[in-house]
Amino acid sequence: MQDIEHELKEHEKSLFSVAQKYRALARDAATKRVIYDVAWANAMESITATALESGEKVTDKVKEAKATVIVQLEMSECRMAEADLDAAKKYIDVMQAMLSSVQTRAKLSQMEMALAR
Fold first, then answer.
1. pLDDT tens digits for 50-76?
2. Which candidate, 108, 91, 89, places its Cα nearest to that of 11?
């Protein structure tokens, strides 16, 4: 029973630690998403203004392609931050499942001990 309690405490500590990191990752991903969205809007505006000034007809697909090249760094950083956030969420889900499993084992052990008395 002590082994199960020790395992339970270790999983609780790990889950708490990951939950704290998740908050920081969520903030980072949100910040990078805003930076990327603003950079995208600025790039699209610049491309459109340049096309209007030159009289050039630019399709939406071409504008999007040019904007993607302009904001590639912001887009990459945003996507990496969002991937980190997704990975952390999956890790939290796994940790919660493991914690639940250990809690179930602890309850079963308690029931076995009670029946043995």
1. 999 999 999 999 999 999 999 999 999
2. 91
Task: For residue 37, give its domain range.
Answer: 2-116
- Residue 38 has what pLDDT? 98
pTM value is 0.78
Across the chain, where does the E strand assignment appear?
A: none
Tokens 């499942």 locate to 97
Q: Token digits for 55? A: 């009289």
The pair of three-digit structure tokens given for residue 99, joined into one six-digit string: 């914690």
Signed CA dihedral, 6, 9, 15, 17: sign only: negative
The sign of the CA dihedral 108, 112, 115, 117 is: negative
Residues 34, 75: contact at Cβ < 8 Å? no
Provide the domain count of the chain: 1
